[in-house]
Amino acid sequence: MLQFWRVLHAGTRNFMRNAWLSTAATVVMTITLTIIVTSFITNSTLTQTIKGVTDKIDVSIYLNDAVTTDQRNSLQAALTADPNVQSVHYRSKDEALADYKAQIGNDQKLLEGIQLTGNPLPASFQVKAKDPKHLDSIVAITDEPQFQKLLDPTAPPSYSGQNKDTINRIVRVSNFFKTAELFASILFIIISTLIIFNTIRMAIFTRREEIEIMKLVGATKWFIRGPFVFEAALYGIIAAVIAVILSYALLLGAGPKLASYINVASTIDFFRSYPVLIVVGELVIGILIGAFSSLLAMSRYLKL
Amino acid sequence: MILFDRVTKVYPNQQIALSGLNLHIQPKEFVTIVGSSGAGKSTLIKLLTREEVHSSGKIIVGGLDYDTIQSKDVPLVRRRIGVVFQDFKLLPGRRVGENVAFALEVSGARGREIKRAVPKMLTLVGLSSKANNFPDELSGGERQRVAIARALIRQPKILIADEPTGNLDPKNAWEIIELLLKINRFGTTVLLTTHNKEIVNALKRRVITINRGKIVKDEEQGRYSLESAPTAGIKA
């Protein structure tokens, strides 16, 4: 235990002595960890965004008012039989009206209009697809002649209210960002590993004399290596703390500007809901990068 | 205390540093080893401190058979032997007291123990007033005393002094030798290597002469002579 504290103490002293190199290594590590934490958080937000929009992709098949229950059931059976269909929900005219009323709220003019015309809204099937990207088979069913005549001629089947292209674009852009973030994270992990590797290599060279003396007086291998590992881990620890503060500040500062593109509120919520996970995760990643790079440097330049 | 039985050391470049060397040193002896450069003195010391591993033969130091040492035990072997060098090998960034304390820190001694032991040792080597000086504020002789204090702080049974006077003027050199004799009187086995003829001749102690990896002379009250190369390597 006493030895452990001495190793920590020596590591901290080395960190201070190498002020410039330590600062450079910490800055690079901070950038890396900031990228990792923002990637992680926006990634989870983007995943939710994608899930949210793809869930909205469903097919509304509007029926004309003359459709009988039998006809309706046969169409429902045909849709349910399609392997790409996840669920088929029938919405009657009354339900459609109730939904509509709920949507318009207290708009008196619209309410009056409905009362004047009776219920103009068609009954419909809300079909949810397993794979929203492939709706062709569902479309094919509605195109069959025996079902074609059941449809409301004024309202052709709609795919998410004509939003399909927009949704696809959101998915594409989100996926691009996820890939880019993963790529940037890996790139910066490699860069900081190399920088710390080099910092520790320099530290080994400047302290060769001290290392020789430590060996001479009977220091164990870990008593000699420990301070280097701790020094590198310290870069990670300091960088993790700065990175968490920095990325939170970035989100709060840049949030309003980004609000129209991504769901910033849920990202900030995520940050607030899992502070321990984020801080501990960053510390662990920072310490691992530091320890790994220093061990790598020692395996090559510190022969004991 | 130290037993070398037909010890041979061949370096990877096929250079034979020691060949079938036999040596037996009793506890509390004061032994001087002389020999020209490249005779094998340094190899002998490196085998004792386990910086090098012998190729064949047997080395037993303080009852420990060096064939049984595993790599993790090497630090423990080094803690049993104090070593001082010609170039002192002090940590320039640490004060005198801290340099001496360092040897204890490394072996896991408690702070209280260190605080008690260091001043005592500095008094023994005559440096109690310099505990807070840095090494570069000291003379060569004083620096070597710090190195000796550091080597002795763990109370080793054996002290190896590898050319301890090589960088010192005659007055300082003699003070160091007198200090080594004093330590020897307290019961520590001292192994001294030197090129200083006057010192060897004045000591009137056991002198072992090594040449080409073999002991060529071993006298109880020896004098300095390098049989095959009478003038080579004499510095002082």
Straight-line N-to-C gap of chain B: 30 Å
Please name the fourth-level CATH homologous superfamily of the largest domain in chain B. Answer: P-loop containing nucleotide triphosphate hydrolases
Rough shape of chain A?
Answer: elongated
Care to count the β-strands of chain B? 10
How many E-type strands of chain A? 4
Task: Give the largest interface pair and sizes.
Answer: A-B, 16 and 21 residues
The name of the CATH architecture of the largest domain in chain B is: 3-Layer(aba) Sandwich
- Largest β-sheet summary of chain A: 4 strands, antiparallel
Q: Compute the number of structural domains of chain A.
A: 2
The CATH class name of the largest domain in chain B reads Alpha Beta
* Order of strands across the main sheet of chain A: 2-3-1-4
Poorly predicted segments of chain A:
none
Summarize the structure.
The complex is a heterodimer of chains A (304) and B (236). With 304 residues, chain A is α+β, with helices and mostly antiparallel strands.
